[in-house]
Automatic annotation (TrEMBL):
NCBIfam families in the record: tig
Enzyme's top EC category: isomerase
InterPro entries named in the record: PPIase_dom_sf, PPIase_FKBP_dom, Trig_fac, Trigger_fac_C, Trigger_fac_C_sf, Trigger_fac_ribosome-bd_bac, Trigger_fac_ribosome-bd_sf, Trigger_fact/SurA_dom_sf
Pfam families: FKBP_C, Trigger_C, Trigger_N
UniProt superkingdom: Bacteria
Major subcellular location class: cytoplasm
Keyword set includes Isomerase: yes
Keyword Cell cycle: yes
Protein name, as recorded: Trigger factor
One Gene Ontology biological process: 'de novo' cotranslational protein folding
EC number: 5.2.1.8
Lineage: Bacteria, Pseudomonadati, Pseudomonadota, Betaproteobacteria, Rhodocyclales
Function of the protein: Involved in protein export. Acts as a chaperone by maintaining the newly synthesized protein in an open conformation. Functions as a peptidyl-prolyl cis-trans isomerase.
Length: 434
């Protein structure tokens, strides 16, 4: 075996290798002998087929397998000898050398980059701070009430928050346009399902009243034939219904899973769930800053093979998500190239975090994994059942282990950086800010 290494770029390697043909011929002969012991052919007993016939029938297969095994063996030995960390799979390029008594080929591949985490001492990280109190619980219960809103007929003009049932017809240049008419169409004023100008025109009308008005569609309206166009609508209100929120009483508590209808117990459960959600969102905001900091101080080049693999994985995930939403596979135009930028970020962070875990001993401890699983289980009716489910299969537990490792890295980075606490408003953290 002979080898010669070239370095075309920072991460790409080309190794020229050769294997004596005598070795390959010997391996072919060995494989054919093994085949001859069990091969079956009409007219011969098993194991009694003449070697010449076995060679004629299976010679090409045996040679292909022998060459593949030889290439794999010499490549594996070479990368181990040179202590190379191969990223992805090598591309094997045969070389034609006249009169050569050896099989000569080149293996082209990428290696993992050397990762040296940078200095984090000047990186700024803000930790959101929010204590969950009665006001936050009240706001959350109000959201739960609104989710269970019912409507009753109102003998008055339509107002913000009301549900109206209408007939409407839209005309452009005097002609009805596609999608511009409906009967018995319900919508809630202010919910955002209709354009604001349309809602404004309906507001103030009573059941039985009609109105004709002009309206201009936004320039970026999704229906291109209507974008920026002025049309005329005729609307007839058939019903006005006022919203009715449920009282916070025993029935409301039972509807939310509190069997005995104890409102105080409901508030305790809401507060517990809210505290877990607030903690999760704060961790997510800190994590995002940590990841940005790691990328800022540790510039690295990443192997194309890893980026391509990650892009394919992200595309597959997106495809599965769309399928779960009811779309058919053939109707889902998802391409790995769309995820290239995200894939580069994920690969970089994966390499940097792996180096930190190894260098700073940030591996997940069994007690940390257990604590995380038990915390996640608290939002379930029977927490012990979820804990058993996680510990029933190593694959599930590995997911929790990955989260703990990530948390360990985040905690370590926060300790190294300039971290400051910053109070945050409840609506801002929960994404409810206007």
């Amino acid at each position: 075996m002979q080898t010669n290494q070239e370095t075309p770029s920072a991460l790409e390697r080309r190794i020229d290798m050769s294997v004596p043909m005598a070795e390959i011929d010997k391996e072919v002969e060995s494989r054919l002998k093994r085949m001859a012991r069990t091969v079956k052919m009409p007219g011969f007993r098993p194991g009694k087929v003449p070697m010449k016939i076995v060679a004629q029938t299976y010679g090409a297969q045996a040679r292909s397998e022998a060459i593949g095994a030889a290439v794999e063996k010499v490549f594996g030995e070479t990368v181990r000898e040179q202590n190379l960390r191969v990223a992805g799979y090598p591309r094997i390029e045969p070389k034609e050398v006249a009169g050569s008594e050896a099989l000569e080929f080149s293996a082209v591949f990428e290696v993992y980059p050397e990762v040296v985490p940078g200095d984090l001492s000047e990186q700024q990280i803000e930790r959101p701070v929010l204590n969950v109190g009665d006001a936050e619980v009240d706001k959350t219960i109000d959201v739960l009430r609104k989710q269970r809103t019912t409507f009753q007929v109102a003998e008055r003009a339509a107002a913000e928050g009301d549900r109206v049932v209408i007939d409407f017809a839209g005309r452009k240049d005097g002609e009805l346009f596609d999608g511009g008419q409906a009967n018995d169409f319900p919508f809630v004023i202010g919910a955002g399902s209709m354009l604001k100008d349309f809602e404004a025109a309906v507001t103030g009308l009573k059941a039985g009243e009609s109105k004709t008005f002009d309206m201009t569609f936004p320039e970026d309206y999704h229906a291109k034939h209507l974008a920026g166009q002025t049309v005329q609508f005729e609307v007839t209100v058939k019903a006005v219904e006022a919203p009715v929120l449920p009282e916070v009483d025993a029935d409301f508590a039972k509807a939310l899973g509190v069997a005995d209808g104890d409102v105080a117990k409901l508030r305790e459960e809401v507060k517990g769930n809210l505290e877990r959600e607030v903690k999760r969102r704060i961790q997510a905001k800190v994590k995002e800053q940590v990841m940005d900091a790691l990328l800022a101080v540790t510039p690295i080049e990443v192997p194309k093979a890893l980026v391509e693999a990650e892009s394919r994985q992200l595309a597959d995930n997106a495809r599965r998500d769309l399928e779960m939403r009811g779309m058919k596979s053939q109707d889902i135009p998802v391409e790995p190239a769309w995820f290239a930028e995200q894939a580069v970020r994920r690969v970089k962070l994966g390499l940097i975090m792996a180096e930190l875990v190894k260098g700073q001993e940030l591996h997940a401890k069994p007690e940390q994994i257990r604590a995380l699983v038990e915390e996640m289980a608290q939002s379930y009716e029977d927490p012990s059942e979820l804990v058993r489910w996680y510990y029933a299969q190593p694959e599930r537990l590995a997911q929790a282990e990955a989260v703990v490792i990530e948390d360990n890295v985040v905690g370590w980075v926060v300790d190294q950086a300039k971290a400051t606490d910053k109070p945050v408003a409840f609506d801002e953290l929960m994404g409810n800010a206007a």
